[in-house]
Write a structure and sequence with these properties.
The structure is a homodimer of 354-residue chains. A ten-stranded mixed beta sheet of chain A has the order 2-1-3-13-12-4-5-11-9-10, with helices on both faces. In chain A, strands 6-8-7 form a three-stranded antiparallel beta sheet. Helix content of chain A is 39%, strand content 23%. Chain A is an alpha/beta fold and 354 residues long. In chain A, β1, α1 and β2 form a beta-alpha-beta unit. In chain A, α1 packs parallel to α11, α9 runs antiparallel to α10 and α10 packs across α11. Chain A folds into two domains: 201 residues, 3-Layer(aba) Sandwich (Isopropylmalate Dehydrogenase); 124 residues, Isopropylmalate Dehydrogenase, CATH 3.40.718. At the A-B interface, α4, β6, β8, α5 and α6 of A face α4, β6, β8, α5 and α6 of B. The structure holds 3-isopropylmalic acid (2 copies). One 3-isopropylmalic acid sits at the interface of chains B and A. Chains A, B: Its EC number is 1.1.1.85. Chains A, B: This is 3-isopropylmalate dehydrogenase. Chains A, B: Pathway: Amino-acid biosynthesis; L-leucine biosynthesis; L-leucine from 3-methyl-2-oxobutanoate: step 3/4. Chains A, B: Keywords: Amino-acid biosynthesis, Branched-chain amino acid biosynthesis, Cytoplasm, Leucine biosynthesis, Magnesium, Manganese, Metal-binding, NAD, Oxidoreductase.
């Protein structure tokens, strides 16, 4: 296809801190390779944001930067944050004021996290079986709403609250998205994960919503697991899962566990998706910024590269997304114990793109 | 020791539903065996409570029964609840109105859950290592407080909230208990599990309390993990844990996972402990009532028997508790694939009690 016919995708890149810049560079490399001469061409704008930027400027996510980000077609995000225990910035500040602020401001209500155990990848499980599921984690409400407060802080009479906010609007749109994704997968199975026997108010809303939306998808079977039981199945029978839909906090917990049993968060991709396309969606590896290995070309860029595939899928380039996934699968199948630099892994995957 | 010198322990037994009666019978068998002719003698009172009792009478936990329970030295609890999906009773009702009501009314602020991978027991992990830790789960507040509500239920404008209540009083007493337990273990290590980067109000209280109480236990080292990261370590390096202290909901989740990696909830014991001894503590297997296998002598009574050991420990009979744990360990080491009835397992463990 000639340049003239290819669509220009305006892509914001937020490399962030630690290993973020290294892994996003490889994701960009693969994005360029898979679209070369094809139907899309990337126009990149890099944004300097993250803990280091805060330390230098005191800025987390200024309004004008947020506005500028809204003008792009999609966002590729690396990782942000300082090392655990580093006291140079208040703990959690950059996560809340940048990462979560982006998810909430850009209405990323579908936090999509696929878990697949690729051939050639070691699982900590003795008999993992055929693991291939996706978690559709709600991304804009629940215990992440930032609601709650403190009374009599620092005294023996202190009380601290955290309020989980769950709306019919918020739950229904993410449940419908999960059913839609389930209906497009071979097994067509959806599992709601919650804790409705204890969290009765939110639980009732989630359960009722799943029952209601299920009627629109008669081809999809659905079941329910308490979050505690879900963690058991995650290690005893993970192949039972196809599509999981769950709230923001439960989704946070079980997707890290899901990543662990499929080879670690070094391989786990995610999309923060606004399905209404009112704002750009954002794609990021599940791993953090790992400052201890930053700048040493030790980080595995696979999660970032798989996140780039999710980005292409979201923008409608299913074929290109599949080609990245196949290239990653081929690379993983032959990795063995080989030690390669971040760039070498990116090069190998880019080369494997058909 | 003669009968005259032995202390009489007034024990309430709540066998409950499903496999509850079968497994508690074996726990009682072992309790009687280990104390026979010894320093303690059990005076049992059985209470008919649970889902079946509710179906028959409409009662969950009447005030007069709760008062009667308060008069005992300890409570042995089996399991309650109907099968998942059984609609003969409202979902979660018996869990909340009986089990959680007992934990809250009797101020069981230490929900103690040991996780140990015994020799002879299969883990789903390929390389579990030497797993031996305890989780001290807060038992009387957090998201379990039953706080929250619903507005415009069943409409597109519905909002459902869940409020996690955390008090300095509640957090400090359980953190201190966890440090005390850590100080008595060989590794003397405590890990706080929370999600303070997102749940900032509660998280700050938990972190500050751990720092404060740590000063009283200079011999104990302590660290911190976000709950999502904790689930990763639970499958990638569970031997790193010694004592975990965490809130009610995170504790619920990670203890099921901990049970799964150490051989399943069929082996997981727990104590709902009131360390101030203002009310009796309650000991129960972590597993549920499993109505599908009830009355068939298929259930494994090991978790109930290990819970009985925790009961003895709480009452100060450390020697007797250790003898049960050794008998269980000996039995587990030689189980292999043997199929035995619930009573046969109980008999074998009772016989192995030295
Ligand atoms: C960094 C943190 C705020 C974030 C979350 O809790 O969502 C992370 O754990 C994730 O899963 O993307
Ligand atoms: C039955 C349920 C209310 C209970 C809990 O959530 O605490 C159970 O899962 C447990 O862990 O004992």
């Amino acid at each position: 296809m000639s340049e003239e016919q290819s669509k220009v995708i305006s892509l914001a890149v937020i490399p962030g801190d630690g290993i973020g810049p290294e892994v996003t560079a490889e994701a960009v490399k693969v994005l360029n390779k898979v679209t070369a001469g094809g139907p899309a061409r990337f126009d990149l704008t890099e944004y300097e944001l993250g803990a280091e930027h805060w330390l230098a400027t005191g800025e987390t996510l200024p309004d004008k930067t947020l506005d500028a980000l809204k003008g792009h077609d999609a966002i590729l995000f690396g990782a942000v944050g300082v090392a655990p225990g580093d006291t140079s910035m208040p703990s959690g500040l950059i996560e809340r004021e940048l990462l979560l602020k982006l998810r909430f401001s850009l209405d990323h209500y579908v936090n999509l996290r696929p878990s697949k155990l690729y051939t050639g990848v070691d699982s900590p499980l003795a008999n993992p079986g055929d693991v291939d599921f996706i978690v559709v984690r709600e991304g804009t409400e629940g215990p992440y709403a930032g609601n709650g407060g403190v009374l009599r802080e620092g005294t023996p009479q202190e009380i601290a609250t955290e309020v989980s906010l769950n709306t019919a609007y918020g739950v229904e749109r993410v449940v419908r998205d999960a059913f839609r994704r389930a209906s497009q997968r071979p097994r067509r199975k959806l599992t709601l994960v919650h804790k409705h026997n204890v969290l009765v108010n939110a639980g009732r809303l989630w359960k009722r919503t799943v029952e209601k939306v299920a009627a629109e998808f008669p081809e999809v079977t659905h079941d329910y697991l308490h979050v505690d039981a879900a963690t058991i199945f995650m290690v005893s029978d993970p192949s039972r899962f196809d599509v999981i839909v769950t709230d923001n906090l439960f989704g946070d917990i079980i997707t890290d566990l899901a990543a662990a049993i499929t080879g670690g968060i070094g391989l786990a991709a995610s999309g923060n998706i606004n399905m209404d396309r009112t704002y750009p969606s954002m794609f990021e590896p599940v791993h953090g910024s790992a400052p201890d290995i930053a700048g040493q070309q030790k980080a595995d860029p696979t999660a970032a590269i798989l996140s780039a595939a999710l980005l292409l899928e979201h923008l409608g380039f299913d074929d290109e997304a599949a080609r990245i996934q196949q290239a990653v699968a081929a690379d993983l199948a032959n990795r063995g114990g080989k030690r390669r630099t971040t760039a070498e892994v990116g090069d190998a995957i880019a080369a494997a793109v058909s």
